[in-house]
Amino acid sequence: MTRHLLLCGGGHVGLDVARLCDQLGYGYSVLDDRPEFAGRERFPTARQLHVGRPETFFPAHDLGAFTHVLLLGYSYKIDTEALYQCVTRFGGHIGFICSKLKRREMFASLRDRGISEVQLARVEAPLGLSIGAETPAEIAVSILGSIIEHQLGEESHGKQAQGSG
Fold first, then answer.
1. CA distance 12 to 136
2. CA-CA distance, 130 to 164, in Å (whole number)?
3. What angle (nearest 5°) sits at the alpha carbon of residue 163, between those of residues 26 and 165?
4. Before 59, cis peptide (omega within 30)?
5. How far apart are CA 103 and CA 77, in angstroms?
6. What is the pLDDT of residue 107?
């Protein structure tokens, strides 16, 4: 399966994730409400660039093209809305870059909006392998490492299921 990541947030981490996607041969698209962070100059190899907010983007687009949605935003309010839209509309892998405190607060807010524990359990938060990453490039490595690990786990599970018949 060819990976196609939706990067929700075109900031420093999003830019380094995109650079690694190019090296790994993964497709990616970018969503950001700031035009300067979702432009062709910044992301020349993106499949698609979307300037907008999650509450307008997610209901208007077919999310089936994406294998992963990564929330790499800069705003608590926008990230919370993006997370709500993802868990209610997207069936693939969802990753959210956040601190443990931000995760607790946002998940509580989403529970108040009717999101179930089952829906929240699908979210990898904090996103990325625990390797002590600090710089945007290191964080991008941890994120792509997690995606590779997640994909290999799915492929391994599929092979085991095929072999058990």
1. 6
2. 33
3. 125
4. no
5. 13
6. 97
Query: How many residues appear in the chain?
Result: 165
CB 30 within 8 A of CB 14: yes
**CA gap 114, 116 in Å, rounded:** 6
Within a 10 A sphere around the Cβ of 29, how many other Cβ atoms?
21
Model pTM score: 0.91
How many Å apart are CA 27 and CA 21, to the nearest integer?
7
Q: What angle do CA 11, 46, 123 make, to 5 degrees?
A: 60
- Give the pLDDT score at 138: 97
**86-129 pLDDT tens trace:** 999 999 999 999 999 999 999 999 999 999 999 999 999 999 99
Rg (CA), the chain: 15
Give the model's confidence band at 159: pLDDT under 50 very low, under 70 low, under 90 confident, else very high: low
Q: Is the pLDDT of residue 25 over 60?
A: yes
Torsion angle defined by CA atoms of residues 47, 94, 20 and 36, in that order, rounded to the nearest 10 degrees: 60
Sole residue written with tokens 């650079």: 19
The distance from CA 1 to its chain's CA centroid, rounded to whole angstroms, is: 17
